[in-house]
Records
---
Amino acid sequence: MNNKLYTLFFFLVVMFTASIVQAAQPIKVGALFAVTGPASFLGEPERNAAQMVVDEINRAGGIKGRPVKLIIYDTQGDATRAVQAATRLIRQDKVTAIIGPSTTGDTMAIIPLVEKARIPLVSCAAGIKITEPVKSWVFKTAQNDSLAVTKIYEHLQKRKINKVAILTVSDSFGSSGREQLKFNASRYRIQVISDDTYGPKDTDMTPQLTKIRNSGAQALICWGTNPGPAIIARNVKQLGISLPVYMSHGVSSKKFIELAGDASEGITLPSGRVLVADLLPSSDTQKKSLLSFISTYQKHFKKEGDHFGGHAWDAMMLVKSAIERGGDSPSAIRSQLEKTRNFAGIGGVFTFTPNDHSGLAKDAFVLVKVKGKDWTLVR
Amino acid sequence: MDIGSLAANGFSWYMMQHQSAQGDSTSALTLSSVKAVSMNFSHQIVQYLLSGFSTGAIYSLIGLGFAIIYNSTGIINFAQGEFVMLGGMLTYFFLTVAGIPLFASIILSVIIATATGVIFERLAIRPLRNATPLSLVIITIGGSIFIRGIAMLVWGKDTHAIPMFSGTEPLFLAGATILPQHLWIFGITILIIVINKLYFYYSISGKAMRACSYNRNAASLVGIDVRRMVLFSFAISSAMGSVAGMIAAPLTMTSYDVGVMLGLKGFCAAIIGGMSSGIGTVLGGLILGVLESLGAGLLSSGYKDAIAFIILLLILFIRPRGIFRKAETERV
């Protein structure tokens, strides 16, 4: 009798634990970021933000009671490694969706893989060719460079400036910016009368700026990521150039002001709203997400969250809400992602459609200006 | 990339400017407008030259570090760039993080960078005395990766700025503008070159080091402690590199990986100067800096780094003993 009871009890316990295991089967999401290497300024905050979102989701009980397991690989900004890591995520780890990679090069390299394996990919890179033409399994969260260029050109048009000098860094970020600056200029009746570049490791840009000073340009647009633009800001001050200076969203963090010091005063640049979250009117749809992102990031990493981390936050949250609505099969996630409407994230308000997998309009950017060593909103 | 084509390009550029000036002032071309344009052009050239000299001075100091170690050991120390990085990063650390005044930070940084150079020689070079120069060169590359890695772990991957030594108000000089920091760079570079010269020609240990560079075996036969001289050369080179790093850092900023490119440029300067630990390398650095700056200003800024490496390759092919060194007879 006793024996039978024990057996029954044992059986129940086994059943019970098995059902817990069944329920707690984690949802596996893959992540590819350039955590080290030349693009680590993107990959590191992205990895932090993605891990942070997943920790917060799991702490709150997971998605529909199931925990999320984030499997992160470092691509080092190298397309070959990105392909290897993506293959591993798909074949061995059997993930249900992938977020990242950080750079356009890495993303373009793995697109054929995810398309073939039919796994949804939400990239954190900005390149316009990722979602144009539309690929059915590929989405992205970073704003197109062309949106940033448009924002600057509209402002120039308002100030009746039509001759600009551009100074771009000779890496993929700079050359994409240069392409967009030249491509969009004629639409705003702007003439690029001086077109120069500098190397990502250059330490003195006075030769290029001396040339620009004498070119008759009415404004200078510089496209790069730290530290180049900070050196340019200082060189501009050294040469006494009084042209209005515009920079790209590549330097939209406090770090730029810290590096350029006084020379950053008066520089205008397009940026995601995360930089000026506390200055936004409370009617702004993104304000709630932005403040929660900033305070959570501050809590986890004792650092200010930037818009690069925001790309990963958006990617993970988009995947999460897709799973909540349609379940965790890759094809369900894909079709739910495509049905995302007015999702207020960090990079902007996302609305995906079958013809638009980048989901953002030009209001994803605001123009900010450095004043008194802090950012102010340009209206 | 010879001087002729450079000048030709400069001239055609000048003509272009000239024509555009003509187009703007719709009236007939007046003498004064030509004058204004050519004035402008000469101001530009002065600016290019000054920028070139200041970057060139940094390249010279780094190049001298390469040359001194090469002369006493026969190896190229590819970790030289890392001492430049250490100079900048240590100064940043003491000044901004630890809050020590500028002058004390500089002294402390030089001491620590020199100590690193000495430890590097002790741990990585001396135990392998009988190794071939090639394997020692490879070891220095490993050492540079190691030092860079440690710096990345300690200070992170961010770029850091150091305040200028004396203000940020630009000074005007013959139509060009420079910063007080440029004067510091010129002054300190000249000072170091003079001290360097005095040391090598008038002090016993300097003379002993020169003896080692001519013939190590003979030097050791006359009682010179060659190993000690090698240690000295590492100490001097790392001190010099770190000074170059800290006087440049207020202008160029600093991060854990600045040493790679600066090291290569310094190496290039030393090659132009024929690995002499004197004026040849200094001129090599200045030539390189000026050509880069003129190239970026008059030709195309995209070719700036290419200029350095084309010069490096040309010299290695055509005049491997450097531009300034006279042919030497091979001792048998």
Note: Chain B has twelve helices and two strands.
---
Amino acid sequence: MLDPVFLAQTILNGLSVGCIYGLIGIGFCVIYNASGIVNFAQGAFVMMGGMITHVLMQQHLPLIPSALLAIIVVALAGVVIERIVVRPLWDRKATMFVMILATLAAQIVIERLTLMLVGDQPKSIAVFTDLPPIKLAGVAIGYQTLWIMGTSLVLIAALGLFFQKTLVGRAMRACAINREAAALQGIVVSRMLAMSFALSAALGAIAGILVTPTQFTAFNVGTPFAISGFIAAIVGGFGRPFGAFLGGLLLGLAQALAVFGLGSGLKNMAALSVLLIFLFLRPSGILGSAK
Amino acid sequence: MTTAPILEVRGLSARYGEVVALRDAELTMREGEFVAVLGPNGAGKSTLMRSIIGLANATGTVRFRGAALKRDPAAVAAAGIALVPEGRGIFGPMSVAENLQLGAYMIGGRGPDYERRLARVLHLFPRLKERLDQVAGSMSGGEQQMLAVGRALMADPKLILLDEPSLGLAPKVTAEILESLALLNREGLSVLLVEQKAPLALKLAGRAYVVSNGRISAEIDPKEITSHGDLARYYFA
């Protein structure tokens, strides 16, 4: 018989991991909007966020400075990838296919470097608040879940304010709408591209830092996260940051319900089914694609 | 009195793939001039504009107030040249106010200077004042063109380039926009206007160039043009 408490717990867990997918999906959208590029190195940023925080905490640095340093380092790594991998191809007007391959290659290089530096064993970091979960009508709400959901909501609100209220945010939106017209206003489009990589990388790093205490991180976790974030972005409407977040929630929920109803082996099938359903029935995604 | 050159184009050529769209264009504009660029559809007028601003793959030199211009639209904007592109290029999903603010991106989109420029644009195009919070893409074509011109003016340019501003607009709206430009020109703004509707442009311009088959084929004095036949002679020379 269906256990409503277990179902509620499943939904909560699904939404929690969905927030992570959503943040990664937003990262895809931010770069795509600024440049038209689909950056498959996005998963590497997630892995790096958790991994660098782990390494710094191993050096007895407290969580908050470790996390902040990790976010800054990953944001800088995003700019480096933009400068040495994406920009030269972009300047040569390389095709989207070439760009995707180049970012995938960057992802593999980062993975292998991480393997060489920290080995192949999974790493984790302690939960941010080490207290027993809150019980609500039989449902256990872990503090890390609250951290994930709370931080995601704060980030969504902050990103909304950034894109709607600041001149730089508006300039990034202008680049997304019409890059040529944006340049005519004196907006240095290539600078916006670098900023979009920094922002996306920082979002990926935050997602990685948030999720690592509930799972683990290893040199090769980036690709599955990238795929989930990419699906979230497509489901939400590619180029729509808020849509990507909704897509992430939907994806996390679908995966959790598939595990609940069909078994854990069908988790990935659920994710791909969600993608296929949207591609067949609503290819523009929940909010409609931005371009 | 002859003023100093504001824009000097020398040997400007541009191609799209194998197709040469512009050959060895030579053009000079002086401070405060209103110059028209005329020619039939596909003659190379827009390519000339795009080449000047750095949007087309072009060779040759462009000097602005004596200094060589970089082939970079953002640098060209920073130098003091604004282009109102064909098709307007407004940011449709954004509000009118956001579009205007982005026009003043180079001064940070705020401050007393920004407020002064905004007041001037809204005085020039009062219809924009009523629609500041409206999504730009939902306005009529004429209002969008006013916004495109207004946004360009927010940069406080020394030279404004307009590419077919009358395209798809009612004659009355076009006249309203061009009248505003004539007013700004009298206040000292240099204007380079690309226009297919030659009679409109010739009414305002002090001088005109004719572009035909990718070449600047003639420089004419608008006073000499009294009939369509006169113009056709230059177009098909």
Note: Chain A touches chain B at residues 167, 170-171, 173-174, 177-178, 180-189 (CB under 8 Å).
---
Amino acid sequence: MIKKIIEIPVTRQGLTDLCKTLDKTLESMDLPAKLKYKIHLIIEEFCANHVEHGDFNEDDVITITLERTDSSLITQIEDKGIPFNPLDLPSVKTNLPLDKREQGGLGIHLVKCFADDLSYRRDGLKNVVTIIKNI
Amino acid sequence: MEISLYERDGSKIITVTGRIDAVTSDDLSKWLEEKVSPPESNVVLDCTEVDYVSSAGLRVILQLTKLAKQSGVVFSLCNPQDNLKEVLDISGFSALFPIYATIDEAILPGSK
């Protein structure tokens, strides 16, 4: 098993650093290219959502734990923000005509589509989201 | 991310190289505002060299598609790689604008 832990501040700079370094971290985990793309996108979308819409202090962090086994990649994303269950968000209507398409909601929509399994729990003061991708 | 622009047969071709993500999408949005807003001719986004697009990039593409429609011109996208194609499909974007395999097809008069 390969395990990696990434911690980023919930700030624009934290998000910038994550986008620049996540590729290298995933590269070191010997993952298929398609899976790397999807898990990169899932992690970016969660973190971007927290940075753009979350109510965090400057010193708050998001902790991302990646565990690669022979058959799956398990990603756990933790933060100490207000309760936020991505599964409670309404589905995005992807079949609307151009005039009616809104800008928001696409990130979590992509996360839901790309995860093989997505679960949420509130653990004390923490949000814990677990994403499983089969290899 | 690198962006360039050229004109061919009356269409503006925007070529992006690299990633369009939560970090770079603002730069692309500002660049588009400066260079092609409002678009006066059809606009093609050449994605041949685009490695990655997240929802932040999709928002910029949606903004450009709406702007093109309001201006009475056509926005199309060219040569997305498989991962991007999948992102466009599951977000419903494939139905919002034409997607072509090559620039030649995108700028053919009959393809608009």
Note: Chain B has four helices and six strands.
---
Amino acid sequence: MADITVDARGLQCPMPVLKISQAMNKATAGQTVELVASDRGSLSDIPAWAADMGHSIKEQFESDGEYHFIIEK
Amino acid sequence: MTTEVRSEEAVAEVTPQQEKMVIIAASGDLDKAWPVLILATTGAAYGLDVTVFFTFWGLTILKRPDAGISGEDWRQKMLSVFAKGSSDHLKLSTLNFAGMGPWMMKGLAEDQNVASVQELLELAKDMGVTLMPCQMTMDLMGLSRDDMIDGLAESAGAGSAISLMKEASISLFI
């Protein structure tokens, strides 16, 4: 279970990236943020954003057509 | 000499230069304003220092919905009537069909939860994107600050745009 959950289900590009970025700005170092998105583009966009920003994706899975990313700050 | 170089390096380490992104928004078309704001907000999400420089018809995106007739010259007044402006009245570059196209496009976007141009404009401001209007085209079209929305940076010219682009890792003309 992540410290913060961001619900971006139903939202299209670029909102999942904007939402996770805003949540990460608020999070403190060491906290984990879970993003749940339904936009298929997130599969490529979120790992690309995280890699660029130097955040590591601790866990990533798909369930019921929703994409979950658990990212550590 | 050596100590001077070292101290400069130390300063650079303490205050790392934030990477910059510049977009020149020269079009007032809905299908151009949308990607301008999608890329600007996403750039901000990447931690970039983003500036959007609005020039020519791009200025219509920044006009207040209630701007009315602007300018002193009759040609400026006519332009302000034909190009009503505001982010809510943008036209499509193709398939506009007297407003039918944008109406359908915006309806589809709403159904599919695509953020509107207005929402993205607000988000851009919240995320610290600098929205910079071009002074020369404002003068050309007879637009004053009162005709524009709030939250804009000081107007500037081509020199400022070039200076920003020289420093930027991403520069786009849309």
Note: Chain B has one domain: 19-173.
